[in-house]
Amino acid sequence: MSELKNTRIIFLLSIVLIGALSRLIPHPFNFTGIAAIALFSGAKLKNRFLAVSVPLLAMLVTDSIIGFHAPIDMLAVYGCFLMTVVFGMALSHNPKAGFVALSSLASSVLFYLVTNFSVWPGNALYSQDLSGLISSYIAGIPFFRNQVIGDLFYSAVFFSAAYFAEKKYATDLTTVKARK
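-> structure tokens emitted (180 positions)
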């Protein structure tokens, strides 16, 4: 195996490991690297299967350690991360800092809107009317703040690491081709 291929594998595994560990170490709620992994995977992994698999596997592995949630909530969360991969794919043609930040923010907003909506129906904490839905969104604001800060932070770390590593090695360290 070539040194560049080893470097590529170590680089990608490091990003996934950092993102996954961010869920396992003590942290403010929603301040994790999983959405950033999804955005990064979509933007940088040319292999679409890997781009989708990496964040979902990171979630499955860490959920198996910290615990799974209600199926409807998990569907909302995993669906948001799949959409974030799609945001990353759209970003792949122009991964400049401003576009990364906007895509990261869009991912945070999507996650906030979808997951707070998903916990509202049938939840005894909220009345099952517009007032209850609004209450669900209000209750999610502190989590949203942490989500935005965490997503921006980890996206900056991952995309910056890729940028500087690619400069050092004069090649794309994130290209993983499908086996034929």
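The radius of gyration is 17 Å.
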